[in-house]
Design a protein that fits this description.
With 178 residues, the protein is α/β, with parallel strands linked by helices. Helices cover 36% and strands 31% of the residues. The chain has one domain (4-177): Rossmann fold (3-Layer(aba) Sandwich), CATH 3.40.50.300. It has helices at 15-25, 78-89, 110-121, 136-143, 157-177, and strands at residues 4-9, 31-41, 44-52, 57-62, 70-71, 74-76, 96-102, 126-131, 147-151.
Length: 178
């Protein structure tokens, strides 16, 4: 049975915007997880922050960070990601997890992949954005039998928010009836 919903598409296709809009439509549901936001300086993308639904923030990656672990021009702060994920898991009770995103930067952290695996295995539904390309954990989550994968396009962008809202509300209603 499908209990998890993944949205994929190329960078800049609107995955984060879709998840933000979905979270705004689901304000009546206790949410856990996070959205990713760009750090812009003088109109140029310089990095990424993670922002939980409880108001916590962490800088995931920045061009000024050491490039010990890097994706493109961004140094990745694994310690900040792992501390953030630990704190995120303390946000209980949660009726829906929203994770933005399961991507290359995040998957450098075994703690992150372990936590996401636990969330996907749990009875609480997960909606997550996932990188279009990637092996390892990225490929594994897309192959799970409990996952429905949506490919975001300019044509389905508007409809997908409504469709996901309906699927989630139905899943939560069925869960409540059990």
């Amino acid at each position: 049975m499908v209990t998890n919903y993944l949205i994929t598409g190329p960078p800049g296709s609107g995955k984060t915007t879709l998840l933000r809009r979905l979270s705004q439509k689901l304000v009546d549901i206790p949410l856990g997880g996070f959205l990713t936001r760009e750090i812009r300086e003088q109109g140029v993308r310089r990095g990424f922050t993670l922002e939980s639904f409880q108001g916590k923030k962490a800088v995931l990656a920045h061009v000024s960070f050491p490039r010990t672990i890097a994706v493109g021009k961004y140094g990745v702060d694994l310690a900040a990601l792992e501390d953030f994920v630990e704190e995120m898991m303390a946000s209980q009770p949660v009726s829906l997890w929203i994770i933005d995103e399961i991507g290359k930067m995040e998957c450098f952290s075994s703690k992150f992949t372990q936590v996401v695996g636990q969330l996907l295995d749990s009875p609480v539904p997960v909606v997550a954005s996932v990188a279009l390309k990637g092996g390892g954990f990225i490929a594994e989550v897309k192959q799970r039998p409990d996952v429905q994968l949506f490919h975001l396009t300019p044509q389905n962008r508007e409809l997908l928010v409504t469709e996901l809202e309906k699927l989630i509300r139905k899943a939560l209603l069925l869960k409540k009836e059990k």
